Fold this protein.
Amino acid sequence: MNIEVWSDIACPFCYIGKRKFEMGLDQFSDKENVKVTYKSFQLQPDADVHTTETLNEQLEKKFGQGPEQVVAMQQQVVQQANDVNLDYHMDDVKPTNTESAHRLIHYAKEHGKMAEMKEELLKAYFIEGKHVGEHEQLAALAERVGLNKETALAILESGAYKEAVQQDIQEGAQLGVQGVPFFVFNVSMPYQVPNLLKHFLRY
């Protein structure tokens, strides 16, 4: 069974959804035969790599809400994260363009490290307060999962995998992906799906 997941590094619900998905998958009897592929999606494709605005300031503009409303909204997100043992630090989040992070995931995929790279990027963004738009920091994260730091940095500086990121985004658009996380189940035996979903819906 192949499962494709469209998500963005900057989406708090994508990390929460990823953890819930993993918890459900862990209860699935045939989990060894499930292949998960992460697909690129950008909530803000035009975002700057560097900005002087905090995440809360950006959300105030986006939703037309005041500081207190945004703080309350963030507290709800943090609680949802806590429910799946994720310790979000939203005040430390550094808003950025996530294209380079997605490019790094594609590079990691070629070396069998896609899942590990995805996890490290989400953790770095939401828990550790790292800047996942800066190539140096991304290369350091690549080293965490066993990839060569200098090679990863060279790949990022070259602009490689931009086409792969855009291809994922276009494929998602054709499927009607407008919000993430978005899961697509590709199965040869459809009867497996209800059993698998039963475990996911627990969480």
Remarks:
- Strands lie at 2-7, 35-40, 182-186.
- The radius of gyration is 17 Å.
- The first strand starts at residue 2 and ends at 7.
